Amino acid sequence: MSNQQELLCERKSFSIVLKDDYKIPVHFHSHPGYEIVWMTKGEAQYIFEEKVYHMTKGQVLFFKSDELHKVHANNDVPYERMVLQFRNDFFKNKNDFLSELQLFLENLPHPHHLLQFSPLEAQQFQQIMERLLDEYEHEEYWGQKQAIELYLFELCLFICREIKSPSNNVLLPSCSTEKVTMLENVLKELNSVWDTTWSLDVVAKNLHINKFYLCHFFKREFGLTVQQYIQQRRIHEAKKLLINTDMTVKDISKRVGFITNSNFIRSFKKYVHMTPKQYRNVSENKVVKFY
């Protein structure tokens, strides 16, 4: 592997960026590895399969990014954040601590954790993140790759200690507003029917709300329709089956709730930009990309 190819590979397995724009994926998506989001200004909603986090300034969200997720932010509210993404294969120096760290990350108590630090902890966290960003933006620094790996070790140690500590600063999802609770209830109901011949009338009835209000509420809070969410959840599950099983495309289309195989292939191509067969072939070559 050439130095250029190696650098490209490392860039795919680690990235950190400070952003203040509203350029965020319009669809629910997933990708291998882990993600750390530090909200430096403003607020936004981070939406998972059955959890919604309303993030505000100073809070940190750490999660497994292979979980289906989406961000929703209002254009009239500031949304400045530092986003760090990494995969296990970024670490090249194998040792006992790395093995222990990877084991902990793979078996997190929950797939996502919202953290609120004390002033001193926030300062320590900020220093680590800023060092990582500075190193990442300067490829000419001597020992850049090794420095990033060291600082990322330090960051993971810092966050894992917060999660493991009996007196940690993890904000539990139960500390939710009435609106967030309603959003989570809607997601839970949809996640119970996504692979069936579901009906909007039945979903609304089970939630004890008007179906027209449900559609308006969902679109306003999530930035997509109920039908689009169901489609994206089906595609997400289909991708996992394509990678992890030998099921035929036809059987997968039925498993995830599509009535016809042609409809499944058309929908899959719309969201993933390739056919299910192409996606499976790409994943076998270990260059799969999650959308």
Say what the CATH topology of the largest domain is. Answer: Jelly Rolls
* Rg from Cα: 20 Å
The CATH architecture of the largest domain comes to: Sandwich
User: What structural category do the secondary elements indicate?
Assistant: alpha+beta
Q: Please identify which CATH superfamily of the largest domain we are dealing with.
A: Regulatory protein AraC
Question: Shape from CA axes?
Answer: globular
How many domains make up the 3D coordinates?
2
Total DSSP E strands: 8
Distance between the termini: 26 Å
Count the DSSP helices.
Answer: 11
The fraction of residues in strands falls at: 15-25%
Series of H and E elements: HEEEEEEHEHHEHHHHHHH
Range of helix content: 40-55%
Largest sheet: 8 strands, antiparallel
Compute the average pLDDT.
88
CATH class of the largest domain, please?
Mainly Beta
Protein described:
The protein has about 290 residues and is α+β, with helices and mostly antiparallel strands. The chain has two domains: about 5-170, Sandwich (Jelly Rolls), CATH 2.60.120.280; about 180-285, Arc Repressor Mutant, subunit A (Orthogonal Bundle), CATH 1.10.10.60. It contains eleven helices and eight strands. The chain has helices at about 5-15, 95-105, 120-135, 145-165, 180-190, 200-205, 210-220, 225-245, 250-255, 260-270, 275-285, and strands at about 15-20, 35-45, 50-55, 60-65, 70, 80-85, 110-115, 170. Strands 1, 2, 3, 4, 5, 6, 7 and 8 form an eight-stranded antiparallel sheet that branches. Helix 2 packs across helix 4. The longest helix is centred in the middle third of the chain and has 21 residues, at about 145-165. Residues about 1-10 and about 285-290 have low confidence and may be disordered.
